[in-house]
Amino acid sequence: VKSGTARVVIANAGNANCANGQQGMDAARAMGAEAARAVNVPDDQVLVASTGVIGAPFPSDKVAAAIPLLVERLRADGMSELARAIMTTDTVPKVGSRGGQAGGIDYRMVAVAKGAGMIRPDMATMLCFVCTDANMDGDALQRSLNRAVDASFNRITIDGDTSTNDTVIMMANGASGAHVRTRDDTAAFQRLLDDLLTDLARQLVKDGEGVTKVVDLTVRGARSDHEARMIADAVAHSPLVKTAFFGEDANWGRIIAAVGYSGAEVDPQQVAIRFDDVPVVAEGGGTGKELEAQATEVLKRPEFTVTVDLGLGEGAADYYTSDLTYEYVKINADYRT
Q1: Parallel, antiparallel or unpaired: strands 315-322 and 167-172
Q2: Helix (H) or strand (E) holding 330
Q3: CB 136 within 8 A of CB 172
Q4: Handedness of CA 158, 161, 166, 169 (dihedral sign)
Q5: What is the pLDDT of residues 198-215, one digit of tens each?
Q6: Residues 29, 32, 36, 41: is their CA dihedral positive or negative?
Q7: Tens digits of per-residue pLDDT, 14-62?
Q8: CA 298 → CA 4, 277, 288, 304, distances in Å?
């Protein structure tokens, strides 16, 4: 947004309006212009977001017909309806809110998100809209959003795939009168936004296509945070690791293999792996059948933690991943039919 200001977001689900050539571009402009006219704002203060099937002609007539009703139904407590309206293969809407103070004045932030498949960094096929009534400089707001997204939506994976229509928008209207200016107020705002978007990111993973396991993946002891992120990325996206999670098989060999091919520096004899608090690898080797059996019990839970410790330094990274199931294949085998 060249001006740095927007007042309206219009979003549709079911059609991504992607790879549609000039017809798609014309449709996107028309969608924004129709919304602008309906609420009496300039065209360049409207943001457009679309999600759904790629390459299908965009039904501009349906959008144009719907906009008057949308405007008629606008209301302050409509975020939950927005969250439901943008769902595609999602099974539940994703909504969150937080509250804080700046200069002794209360403010709120509320967000909705959608996404259940084609999820991996960077963001994948997801939409997220965040609104706050705090007053914050646009550049500062952008920096805060970048940091929050990097720690949340850019740390999740469901199927290791990405798509075309990823959008996260944050809008601040200042209506509360709370000005986020000081270092302390900015840090507090950042903590709230980080927490809100991390909550939504976990909701996305939990509702992932066919997901039965949500896994908090923690990498510690790498030479740097960057190398820890490389390792977390490799393990979190590995189809063999994810199918082992689905099968409730404590096959730590698949994890240590992904650690090895991540490209990060690894000393195999230093690697340790835990499922929750159960150690399955110590000093690069297995800890025995009894502990592996305990780890298998951990994998029967719907949510658990996998910790990988490299023993080489202070580098760390966190990821949120899931299993890969028969149901995922079914959903995506007939997605368009």
Answers
A1: unpaired
A2: helix 326-333
A3: yes
A4: positive
A5: 999 999 999 999 999 999
A6: negative
A7: 999 999 999 999 999 999 999 999 999 999 999 999 988 899 999 999 9
A8: 48, 9, 16, 7
Closest CA to 262 of 286, 236, 244, 239: 236
Mean pLDDT of the chain: 94
Closest by CA position to 94, among listed 208, 204, 214, 10:
204
DSSP string, 47-98: EEEEEEETTPPP-HHHHHHHHHHHHHT--TT-HHHHHHHT-SS-SS-EEEEE
The reported pTM is 0.90
**Percentage, residues of the chain above pLDDT 70:** 98
Grouping H, G, I as helix, E, B as strand and the rest as coil, residue 284 is: coil
Show which residues are catalytic: 125
Structure token pair of residue 24: 């798609």
Confirm if 172 and 141 have CB atoms less than 8 A apart: yes
- Residue type at 286 in one-letter notation: G
From residue 236, how far is each of 44, 125, 242 by CA, in Å?
39, 17, 8
